[in-house]
Design brief:
Layout lengths: L11 H52 L3 H15 L2 E4 L6 E3 L4 H13 L5 E6 L2 E10 L2 E7 L9 H41 L14 H49 L3 H25 L7 E4 H9 L8 E5 L6 E4 L1 H18 L8 E10 L2 E7 L33 H11 L3 E6 L5 E9 L4
Parallel strand pairs: 7-9
Antiparallel strand pairs: 1-5, 2-3, 3-4, 4-5, 6-8, 8-12, 9-10, 10-12, 11-12
Helix pairs in contact: 1-2, 1-3, 1-4, 5-6, 7-8, 8-9
């Protein structure tokens, strides 16, 4: 039975991409955290040094100016440096500047450079800014400067840089994953062509990577050997019909002429017919090449194959397949599929009560697929043997009735459906009996 791919399975490209992206993304995140840690201390020291310099310069300028000169100095600082010096009143209302780790560290640096009683505020009397409280000869003052002088790099800025780094990481990971997986993708494509019977696939044997070069050389040797095996098989199949059927025809003729006992003659003829059918099975199973798919009228083909099983004492076939249903298939291959399924039901699917194989055909649509359900009312198959039924030469005789075939019927069905891009699922029907589900591609509507 075909294996089903796990919904969580990833292609090799995406697996490589995800692993590389996680590795590089983790590296970017670690570097960002490291840089933030390294940037913190110098930025706080630099901010504190700038503000302390402004305060010291302002204090010196005001200390050595008379009352008239101080007004001029204050006006000049406001115009040139975008800062103000104001008297500090006892009624002033101010908001603390030190509210996080960065501002607390700036405050510690400022007090170490100025005075221990230096005040820092983020707003005074409702006016935002960076306010520094200091004294000149016991007179308190406020110095208002731009708050941007001591702002750290904002989280938004960090996120922007991290986002850019992650996008670059994703693009780089995709490029690296594509480069790594290119030889494997070529190998997969060549292997799929070999699977479809095209043995002329060749991989580059001059690639710079030694391991890939050796794999490609080994694959090319395998392809050449398979092509030779396929050629030998074609020659062998061409000779089987003549080399085996000619003596069988002579045996039939000699039996007709030399055997007087009619019953013995009839039994010999049956044995020769059985040998002829077994040869057909071997040829069908060994038939090479991919099928040529064309629209096939499914109901007509099933009715035509069912008409070959006319003996109602052995098998009765009822088809409920819609008459307007078309599938993409090779008509000869598909006829062989249903012929083998009907023959399998006739041999092994007879009802215990009536001794007749009652076969029902229904269908269902599943996306681009048409699934034909072929069910008999026989004893079914032990569940542990279901997976072995398509194995060449295997027969589940213990569970079903007498077997006289080559054990290739269901193996031929599965192989033919694979050549047509379809599939075969085998199971025991819930209501009893054996169920074969034939999956075929739906033909496009015109």
């Amino acid at each position: 039975m075909p294996t089903r791919r796990s919904p969580l399975a990833l292609s090799l490209f995406w697996r490589t991409f995800v692993l590389l992206a996680l590795l590089l993304g983790g590296g970017v995140f670690a570097w960002v955290q490291t840089l933030r840690g390294l940037d913190f201390e110098p930025r706080t020291v630099q901010a504190a040094q700038q503000i302390a310099s402004l305060v010291n310069l302002s204090r010196a300028a005001l200390r050595y100016s008379d009352s008239i000169g101080r007004v001029s100095v204050v006006k000049t600082m406001s115009d040139e440096e975008a800062m103000r010096v104001l008297p500090r009143e006892p009624a002033d209302k101010w908001e603390p500047f030190e509210v996080d780790r960065f501002t607390r560290r700036v405050g510690q640096e400022l007090r170490s450079r100025l005075q221990p009683d230096t005040l820092l505020a983020r707003a005074v009397n409702g006016q935002p800014g960076l306010w520094v409280g200091f004294t000149i000869e016991n007179d308190p003052y406020w110095l208002q400067a731009e708050a941007t002088r001591v702002l750290p790099i904002t989280p938004a800025t960090w996120f922007l840089w991290v986002g850019i780094a992650l996008i670059a990481t994703a693009l780089g990971s995709a490029a690296i994953a594509r480069l790594i997986n290119q030889p494997l993708r070529e190998l997969s494509f060549a292997a799929s062509r070999i699977r479809d019977g095209e043995f002329d696939s060749r991989l580059d044997e001059n690639t710079l990577t030694s391991e890939i070069r050796e794999v490609n050389m080994g694959f090319n040797r395998m392809a050449r050997e398979l092509a030779k095996v396929e050629e030998d098989r074609a020659v062998m199949l061409a000779g089987i019909s003549h080399d085996l059927r000619t003596p069988l025809a002579r045996l039939r003729l000699e039996a007709e002429l030399s055997v007087n006992d009619s019953e013995a003659r009839h039994n010999m003829a049956l044995d020769i017919d059985q040998l002829d059918r077994i040869i057909d099975k071997f040829l069908d199973y060994a038939r090479p090449g991919a099928a040529r798919l064309v629209p096939v009228h499914l109901a007509q083909l099933i009715d035509r194959e069912a008409a070959n099983f006319r003996d109602p004492s052995q098998i009765r076939i009822v088809s409920r397949v819609a008459i307007d249903l078309n599938v993409l298939a090779d008509e000869t291959e598909l006829a062989r599929v249903f012929g083998n399924l009907f023959e399998n039901a006739r041999r092994y699917g007879r009802s215990i009560e009536t001794g007749v194989a009652e076969v029902e055909l229904t269908y269902s649509r599943a996306g681009p697929w048409i699934v034909v359900h072929v069910r008999d009312h026989g004893p079914g198959v032990p569940p542990e043997k279901l997976t072995q039924l398509t194995t060449p030469f295997y027969r589940g005789d213990a569970a079903r009735t007498a077997a006289t075939g080559a054990g290739l019927g269901l193996a031929i069905v599965e192989k033919a459906l694979q050549r047509m891009g379809g599939g075969l699922d085998l199971a025991n029907a819930p209501e009893g009996g054996f169920l074969a589900q034939v999956r075929l591609k739906r033909a496009p509507q015109h």
